[in-house]
Amino acid sequence: QLELLGEALATGLLREHSTAGRYAFSHALVRQTLYDELGLSQRVIAHRNTAAVLERLYGDNSPEHLSELAFHLFESAVSGDPLRSVEMSVRAAELAHRQFGYDESVRHYERALEALEFAGDADPSVQCELILNQAEARWDAGQRDLSHDQFRRAAGIARELDRPELLARAAVGMRSYGDNTRPDAETVRLLEGALESVGDGFPVWRARILSRLTYCAPHTESM
After folding, report:
1. Which residues pair with 91 in a beta bridge?
2. What are the φ and ψ backbone dihedral angles of 141, each rounded to 5 degrees?
3. Which 8-state DSSP code applies to residue 79?
4. Which residues of 99-130 are buried (b: 16+ CB within 10 A; e: fewer)?
5. Is 111 helix (H, G, I), strand (E, B) or coil?
6. Which of 92, 123, 165, 168 gives a 20 to 30 Å CA spacing to 23?
7. Structure confidence by residue, pLDDT tens digits, 64-112
């Protein structure tokens, strides 16, 4: 392998990094061309091996490498451990969100949802929570229409599961703070339905729903 590295360096395909023992392709096009020549099984194995090396070198809690690790685990999830991919994608999404990387957070949640499908017999509650997470990230990223689509989808799942707190979270998401637009009838009905669903069993969610309804007719006049 050292001989192959030497040949690649000599031909200019690779360049040596300033850190000893690290190399990079001389151009992204070279990397992509070589990657495209790999078969599916070869790609999966390469990603799985890369993820294993990253975990061995940096662990699974390194902020600098968490996104990279999550990516390689996702790319190998089809023949690896999909639930592990879900876990790391969620952690990478949460880190990106804390760092105001909302678009990156959206991408990691998308991968988490795809990896969950690979797992088979996915827990619909987990799926619903991931959809809500991504919807909230989309809102912060300025993707308002896509965010609302996902809140509606999550609300449907929450009703089927009879999970009032998830339904409330979806309803509240439809009227996130800073939304000064006039709510449509569907949003008002969703908030009203969520309020009825939570009853007195979820006082925090009840308060949050009521705070949203104060800006929705006809509740504006009565509250």
Report:
1. none
2. -85, 0
3. G
4. eebbebbbbbbbbbbbbbebbeebeeebbbbb
5. helix
6. 92
7. 999 999 999 999 988 878 999 999 999 999 999 999 999 999 999 999 9
